[in-house]
Amino acid sequence: MTHRPLDGLLVVALEQAVAGPLCTARMVDAGARVIKVERSTGDFARGYDRAGRGDSSYFAWTNHGKESIVLDLKTDEDAQLLHRLIDRADVFVQNLAPGAFARLGFDTTELRAHNPQLITCDISGYGESEAVADKKAYDLLVQAESGLIGISGGANELGRIGISIVDIGAGITAYTAVLEALVTRAVSNTGSALKVSLFDVAAEWMTVPFAQHVHGDGGPTRVGLRHPTIAPYGAYETVDGRLTLLAVQNEREWEQLCIDVLGRPDIASDPRYGSNNDRVANRDVLELDLSNEISTLDATTFRDRLDDAAIAHGTVNSLDDLVNHPALRMREVVSSDGHQLGLPAHPIRRDHTASVFETGPVPKIGEHTAEIRQEFQQPPAPH
Predict the structure, then answer these.
(1) Structure pTM?
(2) What distance lies between CA 189 and its chain's CA centroid?
(3) Fewer CB within 10 A of the terminal residue: the chain, N end or C end?
(4) What is the pLDDT of residues 357-381, one digit of tens each?
(5) CATH code for 10-206+329-375?
């Protein structure tokens, strides 16, 4: 049997929605045992949609392989059981609404006092600034608050990033933080207190437009399927109505595009397009010149010429195109109803494949409650 990186690790998760569950889902994929604590109605993400063969798509993606226990943490009995779970755990992750964990009578500092090797990870919306700490934070709201939406979309229309990018980013950041803490614990034999907020993640990802705005000549404007600071870099329509995204990265590629792909050396030598800065400044007329040529070609011919000229390009694909993409790798997840569910594969490829995708099914609400209660009915031995 192949050893997985986090084999033997016990993770307790008081989690909901996307960020917390994705963090611990990565731990499941790496071999950890994750016990998911739910209320009697279950994680509300179970009901986002029904695309997961009985489960929601988000829930199936971020919860397969976990064990589910239902607890009523307002009762002394179940609160004490959660304490016993955490006392034996290596990692505890929670992403409840602001202040909810404290209102239940729990404090992560006290949890680590009982279990000095414990790694706690609190995921919040806005961190601890008093001005915003109590605000509810959902993915789209944080996209907006962080300025991400302000630079996304077309010139005349704001646009949401098409997936829950901030939730996903916070979950992966939290997972990275936990891995760092595990390395630290291996050296120091002590746990860590980690805190990750959706806003911090989104703001840090906005570093380049932030720096351009504060320290440069102004941040990027909304440009749709264009690059804000490189031209030509965007989508062009061919005669058959298909969109191809091309990216010219240097002057050599610019000349190859004009001469080898379009057969228009006069465009390459036009002084209005003499450098990338010139092309950005004259983007509208540049794109008109290019579109007039590209629109006479079919997509296959255009893309073949781009390949021959070694100019980077991509197809603006639909979801149907993704399903049939030659680079797409798949994994099988078993839904809580026992159905096979094909989903995109885990992005990490290891030199031993047996440990990559072997996880259990999506758990039913409270599916493992009785077994976990039995296992953790006694307090752990002193640390």
Answers:
(1) 0.91
(2) 30
(3) N
(4) 578 999 999 999 999 999 999 776 6
(5) 3.40.50.10540
